[in-house]
Amino acid sequence: MILIAGPAQGFEEKRISIGSKAFTEAVILGEIASFLLKADGVPNVNRRQMGGTRILWNALRRGDIDVYPEYTGTIRQEIYAGKKSLTDPLSLKQALARDGIGMSSPLGFANNYAFGNTAARAKELNVSRISQLSKIQNLQLGFSNEFLDRSDGWSSIKRVYNFKTKDAQGLDHDLPIER
């Protein structure tokens, strides 16, 4: 996870606009950024829960927001469509710079997708691996809406593990945030 920012011209002369995606972790990170800027006397506005990756990326590129937290994997897989050359932080930083975007150092944590199940249901199905789930007929699956649409999300999992289940439901995976 890094913070990415649009062109830094005139930040000292205006209020910084912070964006966050429509899920709890992103909202919390936006709140932290807002708090830290305010603590340093930098005026800012925090635009919470704006939407998914493309909405935030496009808002950043247009200048509608100045900064938002993003996962390096999402930048590589979704924003730059999995370009093989962006495998290290320097190449990613250079690619972003070519688009007029800056990035922070990594924030020190990762957020990987995982499958979840109760222990009782896993025992009942006799599964401990994703590959074992793929053989179960009529399995009901639910994922975040963004995971359903990502190139490295459900479509890849379904193809790699040969899932027979055709339908997976989109789920809202955020907590309501009071405004």
Give the topology, please.
Elements lengths: L1 E4 L10 E4 L4 H16 L4 E4 L5 H10 L4 E4 L1 H8 L9 H10 L3 E2 L15 H7 L4 H4 L7 E4 H5 L4 H8 L6 E4 L8
Parallel strand pairs: 2-3, 6-7
Antiparallel strand pairs: 1-4, 1-5
CATH class category name of the largest domain: Alpha Beta
Low-confidence stretches: none
Quote the average pLDDT: 84
General form: globular
Number of folding domains? 2
How far apart are the first and last residues' alpha carbons, in Å? Answer: 25 Å
Secondary-structure element pattern, one letter each = EEHEHEHHEHHEHHE
Radius of gyration using CA atoms only: 19 Å
Strand order of the largest sheet: 4-1-5
The CATH homologous superfamily of the largest domain is called: Periplasmic binding protein-like II
Give the helix proportion (percent range): 25-40%
Provide an overview of this structure.
The chain folds into two domains: 2-103, Periplasmic binding protein-like II (D-Maltodextrin-Binding Protein, domain 2, 3-Layer(aba) Sandwich), CATH 3.40.190; 119-170, no CATH class. The protein has helices spanning 24-39, 53-62, 72-79, 89-98, 119-125, 130-133, 145-149, 154-161, and strands at 2-5, 16-19, 44-47, 67-70, 102-103, 141-144, 168-171. The strands form three sheets. A three-stranded antiparallel beta sheet has the order 4-1-5. A two-stranded parallel ribbon has the order 2-3. With 179 residues, it is of the alpha/beta class.
